[in-house]
Amino acid sequence: MKTVLERLNGSNPVFSVEFFPPRDAADELVLWRAIRELEALDPAFVSITYGAGGSSRDRTIRTTGRVAQETTLVPMAHLTAVDHSVAELRNVIGWYAAVGVRNILAVRGDPPGDPNGEWVRHPSGLTYAEELVRLCRELGDFCVGVAAFPYGHPRSADLDTDTKYLVGKLRAGADFAIAQLFFQPEDFLRLRDRVDALGCDTVLLPGLMPLTTPRTLAKTVELSGAPVPDVVARRLDPYADDPAAFRTAGIDLVTEMGERLLAEGVPGLHFYTLNRSKATREVVARLGLVPARA
Ligand SMILES: Cc1cc2nc3c(=O)[nH]c(=O)nc-3n(C[C@H](O)[C@H](O)[C@H](O)COP(=O)(O)OP(=O)(O)OC[C@H]3O[C@@H](n4cnc5c(N)ncnc54)[C@H](O)[C@@H]3O)c2cc1C
């Protein structure tokens, strides 16, 4: 089983995809259709998020294990420190290792119920992702990733402080970082410059979501923490009531972002798929990121 870093260090740029664990049997069918459709395009890795509040955790472990054991894909399991003691975290990491997972995205997580509420550490748990990175490193030969935020994490006082802590967790042993959603390539490139200015050259991957519907645009606002910039609004707003035209304009926009980022030398693009494959397949085909045979 290859590591994420090995897959990113090839001679050509790659793409990767992110899924969330299915809630029920119907969701599971949809997810597995998307996984199989994308498998044919040889993504560098597929990541499975780790739910807040406990409910989806078993499904994350099960789904990541199935990807490891039943597909040709390289899985990456997310892990959070939410409501977990260190003993429980060790246990989950042990499960990941047991099902053949070598890649972990170590994120702190948000308070269950209210993501903006006060973060309360489990009495025997961890406070920051940096500690989770160290724990993963201690427990095995894992390739470990972390989260990065082009506009700064919402809890950070300012961009300098945000960058300082990001570099802290990279230096704690992370092999790469994946960026939260953003609207313009420059937003990601400025993050990369800030990290670079602190003397850190760890790989940063941009995260993109195909903007196929007004809902995906709203999701980007919610996750990025930034309003839609005028330059994006001017391209999408005219089609708010025309789903087909919105989708075309949104896919064009994300494809152009991908082109610019690849021209700026990123080793890969990470796609937030919402467990569907069609839009991602279209974008990566247009960007020439799929094998010729696919
Ligand atoms: C690519 C990606 C994947 C994600 N996957 C998931 C998932 O699967 N499940 C899930 O629940 N959530 C997920 N998240 C969301 C993430 O859990 C939240 O954004 C969370 O609020 C922050 O996580 P973090 O790992 O960046 O935290 P941290 O790096 O711990 O940072 C949290 C805050 O504390 C500050 N900070 C960090 N270190 C220190 C320090 N040493 N001293 C003082 N302050 C510090 C940071 O600047 C930041 O403001 C994901 C986010 C991204 C970008």
Task: Indicate the structural class.
Answer: alpha/beta
N→C terminal distance = 22 Å
Number of strands: 9
The major sheet is characterized as:
9 strands, parallel
Number of domain units? 1
Mean pLDDT, rounded to whole units?
Answer: 95
The unreliable regions are none
Helix content: 40-55%
By CATH reckoning, the class would read Alpha Beta
CATH architecture: Alpha-Beta Barrel
Within the largest sheet, what's the order of strands? Answer: 7-6-5-4-3-2-1-9-8
H/E topology pattern:
HEHEHEHEHEHEHEEHHHEH
Portion in strands:
5-15%
Ligand inventory reads: flavin-adenine dinucleotide
Please tally the helical runs, counting DSSP H or I stretches of 4 or more residues. 11
| Gyration radius over CA | 18 Å
Instruction: Choose one word for the global shape.
Output: globular
Q: What do we call the CATH topology?
A: TIM Barrel
Describe the structure.
By secondary structure, the protein is an alpha/beta fold. The protein has one domain: TIM Barrel (Alpha-Beta Barrel), CATH 3.20.20.220. The protein is 45% helix and 13% strand. Residues 49-50, 52, 78, 80, 105, 107-110, 128-130, 147, 153, 155-156, 162, 165, 168-169, 178, 180, 207 line the site of flavin-adenine dinucleotide (FAD). Flavin-adenine dinucleotide is lined by residues 49-50, 52, 78, 80, 105, 107-110, 128-130, 147, 153, 155-156, 162, 165, 168-169, 178, 180, 207.
